[in-house]
Specification:
Elements lengths: L3 H15 L3 H12 L4 H8 L7 H37 L8 E2 L8 H6 L5 E2 L7 H15 L3 E2 L5 E2 L1 H4 L25 E2 L5 H9 L4 E10 L11 E11 L4 H16 L4 E7 L4 E10 L10 E9 L1 H11 L10 E8 H9 L12 H4 L4
Parallel strand pairs: 3-6
Antiparallel strand pairs: 1-2, 4-5, 6-7, 7-11, 8-9, 9-10, 10-11
Helix pairs in contact: 1-4, 2-4, 6-11, 8-10
Bound molecules: 3,4-dihydroxyphenylalanine (DAH).
């Protein structure tokens, strides 16, 4: 026959299992384990038992108390997680969030709408220049170009001297460029990365370097003190102008469509010989009926290779053996004609009414 304690334990476990909420469970706990609960009452009864019975019943009592305590903890945990699931099921995660405007003082759309209550958090999107950059990188990537990088704050050597740009060149004018007190400057073009790339690796080279460039321009609809370029550099044996033209034509037609017309017009850059400017015209582009200048390019000047050799202390870029082409594409201009953006200043004004159009 079962000891009454065992019966008590079974009853308790059954009731614990049946407890449907935290209150019912707590009532069960008090009934069995509370000060005057039935298991506690057995503790009192122990004193009345004989010497032989006491250790047996004592062990049974301990086991019962432990089993009931553990069962209550387990049941409590189950009830807690059930309650949580029910609460979570009531949340509609597709609803937009809310935010307190004071945490967003200066947040544009609040200022624009004059709204002073709660505003839903809005989904962001990539800046049109970033979109442009990603599309461009993807195309060059398919052509085998990898990414190179260099600092925005440069020295005159990487920005000018190594690029065969003499001290009296107008680009070096203090009015043209932002100089730091220590003589360094904000790079006026990404061509600096050509030099940095060749300094750090021998030919062959096939890289593009997207990044910001800076000029002390009068700011207007087409000029900004900070703008963006993609520099390209390809150095190998027997590279020709035909390679250069082929690469840029492919890139521009991938970007603007196969019907895009492309012209290469003779130009002058100190670091290329010959030098060319690239113009495009395409019916697919709004305002694209006219020719638009998009890039400078040319064959790397031997003096540039020699400057790199001097810096490297070797003859890795022997102009007799290696030739190459380089180009610099104006990203802002590219994005402006692709997205039909009338004013370069829009890129930096952070006006959500503008940015939202590219979501
Ligand atoms: N660095 C020139 C500029 O900012 C653009 C350029 C022209 C880059 C010819 C080149 C190049 O790599 O070969 O106006």
């Amino acid at each position: 026959m079962n000891h009454p304690l065992e019966q008590l334990r079974d009853d308790a476990l059954r009731e614990i299992e049946a407890a449907s909420d935290e209150q019912a469970l707590e009532a069960t706990r008090i009934k069995y384990l509370g000060k005057s609960g039935s298991i506690s009452a057995w503790g009192e009864q122990m004193k009345t038992l004989g010497k032989e019975e006491r250790p047996v019943v004592g062990r049974l009592l301990n086991e019962t108390r432990n089993a009931v305590t553990v069962a209550i903890e387990k049941r409590a945990e189950i009830l807690r997680s059930q309650k949580e699931s029910v609460a979570l099921a009531g949340i509609d995660i597709s609803l937009p969030g809310v935010t307190v405007p004071s945490a967003y003082s200066g947040y544009c759309s609040i200022a624009l709408t004059g709204y002073s209550g709660y505003l839903p958090l809005e989904r962001g999107s990539r800046h049109p220049l970033t979109q442009m950059l990603q599309r461009s990188i993807q195309i060059f990537h398919r052509m085998g170009f990898s990414l190179a990088d260099g600092p925005d704050i440069e020295d005159e050597w990487h920005c000018f001297d190594a690029l065969n740009t003499p001290a009296d060149h107008p680009a070096r004018n203090e009015q043209d460029t932002f100089y730091l007190p220590d003589g360094r400057l904000l790079r006026t073009h990404t061509s600096t990365v050509q030099i940095r790339t060749m300094e750090s690796a021998p030919p062959p080279i096939r890289v593009i370097a997207p990044g910001a460039a800076y000029r002390r321009d009068e700011i207007d609809a087409t000029h900004s003190a900070q703008f963006h370029q993609i520099e390209g550099l390809y150095v190998d044996e027997n590279v020709s102008v035909a390679d250069l033209k082929g690469a840029l034509e492919f890139f521009l037609r991938e970007l603007f469509g196969s019907e895009t017309e492309i012209q290469f017009r003779p130009h002058y850059f100190p670091f290329t010989e010959p030098s060319l400017e690239v113009y495009v015209r395409s019916k697919a582009l709004k305002g694209g009926e006219r020719w638009i200048e998009l890039a400078g390019c040319g064959m790397v000047h031997p003096a540039v290779f020699e400057a790199v050799n001097t810096a490297r202390g070797d003859k890795a870029y022997d102009p007799e053996k290696w030739s190459g082409y380089a180009f610099g594409l104006g990203m802002d201009r590219l994005a402006m004609i692709l997205f039909d953006i009338p004013d370069i200043r829009l890129f930096a004004q952070n006006d959500l009414r503008f940015l939202k159009q590219f979501a």
